[in-house]
Specification:
Elements: H1 2-10, H2 21-34, H3 38-50, H4 55-69, H5 71-87
Helix pairs in contact: 2-3, 2-4, 3-5, 4-5
Length: 88
């Protein structure tokens, strides 16, 4: 799984030119919030910050998704984001 993740996902998919890494980060964060995947969300929030997404944009993404993906998912996501932002 790690090899496929490194070689295919990050080596091929994330390098496709049709979306910027910043946009890919926002899409990925949104999907992980909607699917309530806090463990994966943590690392992708860090990656999103590295790819130029601001803390404010990430908070707004979580807020926006509260109405589309569910309040509990957003609450979990904001707790993960708080943890990530505090470590930054």
């Amino acid at each position: 799984m790690a090899e496929l993740t490194d070689d295919v996902l990050y080596g091929d998919v994330w390098e496709r030119p049709e979306l910027s890494k910043r946009d890919r980060s926002l899409v990925t964060v949104a999907a992980l919030i909607a699917l309530n995947r806090p463990d994966q969300l943590r690392s992708h929030l860090i990656r999103a910050l590295e790819n130029g997404v601001t803390q404010e944009e990430l908070i707004e993404t979580i807020t926006h998704l509260a109405f589309y993906a569910g309040w509990p998912n957003a609450v979990n996501a904001i707790n993960v984001a708080r943890e990530v932002f505090e470590k930054k």
